[in-house]
Design goal:
The structure holds two protein chains of two kinds. By secondary structure, chain A is α+β, with helices and mostly antiparallel strands. Chain A is built from 17 helices and 20 strands. By secondary structure, chain B is α+β, with helices and mostly antiparallel strands. Chain B is 20% helix and 20% strand. The chains are: A alpha+beta, B alpha+beta. Chains A and B meet through strand 12, helix 8, helix 9 and strand 18 of A and helix 1, helix 4 and strand 6 of B.
Chain lengths: 465, 91
């Protein structure tokens, strides 16, 4: 008897895999999803916010049914100094509660399980606790997957197995991630009763905030850079300091505190990510917000960023890559909606190939068009651009916190500063700190001149006093 | 509040794969000067004793950082088999 050949195998039941399976099942195709966890979501970590742009079109009534924590109504950006914090203007928008495309904090362990269940209800078959270890080839075309529990054949395989994708590597489409292309995120969940969260952040039940923290974290002197590794020349000597993103999110009855940095930055700084997180916990601004909270869980994950160089590495003979496996993240590292959108695009490409009866790379190239419809080609391009300019961004991120804090100190008349010698007038400080490092020459020259005049006048004024 | 790394790791539920999912060719580590794995591993599973590299497979958070940073390709890392490894309850 001939072995049964499924229409499609999806590897990984995260947002990309589940979205692909849901779409395929709705299109009436015979689809099998493999998940290495006992339950979808138990291996997955993200910083904490789900953007529901794509989810809304897949499951319009998700707000009533999905396990959501809090709807984000405010984003706050803070620059942290050694023992001070500068809160930048933030917008709290209560209308967001009535938007179609809200942002929610979710626990992936709950959300992914629910989302995969939607695919199962639509007719997909889910095989949990099974690791896909290799691909089966037939005439130079991927024809199935190999697991410890047996082989399974399909006409096409969608690799949605995350950043360390087995499908991407075994199919030869992509090599394992390089340190400059991924960032490590460490996260801890802190228990805090919901009434206390609502009191501390001035929220109503169901509302939530994101706090993003910038600023430098100091560490021990770094290992001398080795010119043979990419970190050596890409970012230059970091002097034991690195700019890390730290974020704090509100869940229903807990907080998530995360620290994130590209692996090559971590490596060059020589500070382990958990030390960064601990340093952030100790910062007085954060310490007061998380006071009394009890540690519930500690997590770590890699997040791909910077997009792919060449989109043709996203599809091969009988194989497609979606989600983190295809590096679908925005330039800010948001991966939730691009994962779902790329899953849907992959599902459409598979349907297109099934109609044609051909699963070669040439037919699956229709994936490009479907990605374009979802706006993901643009996302990939933007992410790539941001990644290529990373050295420059990094310089800015390292310098800006100091400048901003200095300007803020003058602006808010910190009494410690009264004695200090100032090289520039208050306006001059603004120009030299913020505008000069980034502006092109035609902005720099006139403003530089104005600053010089202003500083002279200011000096004369000071001298008269 | 501020828990030490061991206390943080103690919050996790993990079922180690009897077939080790990390294999290190320790002889390659002898020539390594930077040893980035000892810095980036978020569970601190790699450490340098002064004359050799020691690692532990239990308690791995399955992020894959060690494999990505290893400059000599000494670390063979794969996912633990299905049903094994870390289980995040609040991922």
């Amino acid at each position: 008897m001939a072995e049964h050949v499924h229409d499609c195998i999806v590897v990984g039941a995260g947002p990309a895999g589940a979205a692909a399976a849901l779409q395929l099942a709705r299109d009436g195709l015979d689809v099998v999803v493999f998940e290495r966890g006992k339950r979808p979501g138990e291996k997955n970590v993200m910083s904490g916010v789900l953007l529901t742009r794509k989810l809304h079109s897949l499951v319009p009534d998700f707000r009533q049914r999905a396990p959501l924590q809090r709807c984000i109504t405010e984003e706050i950006i803070c620059i942290l100094g050694q023992d001070e914090a500068l809160r930048l203007p933030a917008l709290r928008n209560y209308r967001r509660l009535s938007y179609d495309h809200q942002a929610f904090t979710v626990f992936r362990s709950e959300f992914d399980a629910w989302f995969a269940q939607q695919a199962v209800e639509a007719g997909a078959e889910l095989i949990p606790a099974t690791l896909v270890e290799d691909l089966i080839w037939k005439n130079g075309c991927v024809a199935g997957v190999h697991t410890r529990r047996g082989d399974l054949r399909a006409r096409v395989v969608i690799g949605a197995d995350g950043v360390n994708s087995t499908v991407a590597e075994k199919s030869g489409l992509r090599s394992p991630p390089q340190p400059a292309e991924v960032s490590l995120i460490v996260r801890q969940i802190l228990d805090l009763p919901s009434e206390q969260i609502e009191e501390r952040f001035a929220l109503q039940p169901g509302e939530g905030v994101i706090l993003q923290f910038g600023g430098l974290v100091s560490g021990p002197p770094p290992v001398p850079p080795n010119p043979s590794t990419s970190s050596g020349h890409r970012l230059g000597g970091l002097g034991g300091q690195g700019a890390y993103y730290t974020e704090l999110y509100t869940n229903r009855d807990s907080l998530s505190l995360t620290a994130e940095a590209p692996l090559d930055v971590l490596q060059a700084c020589g500070v382990p990510a958990y030390d960064v997180l601990a340093a952030r916990e100790r910062h007085p601004y954060i310490a007061r917000l998380i006071q009394g909270a009890k540690l519930r869980e500690y997590q770590a994950h890699l997040i791909p960023w910077g997009g792919v160089d060449d989109l043709s590495c996203l599809y091969g003979n009988g194989v497609l890559l979606a989600g983190d496996a295809g590096k679908f993240t925005t330039e800010d590292g948001v991966g939730s909606w691009p994962a779902m959108a790329s899953g849907v695009a992959a599902a459409r490409a598979v349907k297109h190939a099934c109609e044609k009866g051909d699963f070669s790379q040439a037919t699956l190239a229709a994936y490009r068009d479907f990605l374009d419809e979802e706006g993901l080609i643009e996302t990939q391009r933007e992410a790539r651009q941001a990644w290529q300019h990373e050295g420059w961004y990094h310089k800015i991120r390292r310098r800006y916190p100091d400048h901003l804090l200095r300007i803020a100190r003058r602006y808010f008349d910190d009494w410690l500063m009264e004695e200090a010698e100032h090289p520039y007038s208050p306006w001059g400080e603004l120009y030299h700190g913020l505008i000069k490092p980034v502006a092109p020459w035609y902005v720099r020259w006139p403003l530089g001149l104005a600053t010089w005049v202003d500083t002279r006048r200011w000096r004369r004024h000071q001298a008269r006093k | 509040m501020e828990a030490h790394l061991d206390a943080k790791l103690a919050t996790l539920i993990s079922k180690p794969d009897p077939e080790p999912h990390i294999v290190v060719q320790a002889e390659l580590c002898l020539a390594c000067e930077e040893r980035p794995c000892t810095i980036v591993c978020p569970a601190n599973l790699y450490w340098w004793t002064g004359d050799q590299m020691v690692h532990n497979c239990e308690g791995c958070l399955e992020c894959g950082s060690c494999r990505a940073v290893c400059p000599h390709g000494a670390i063979t890392w794969r996912y633990p088999r299905g049903g094994y490894g870390v289980r995040y309850r609040w991922g």
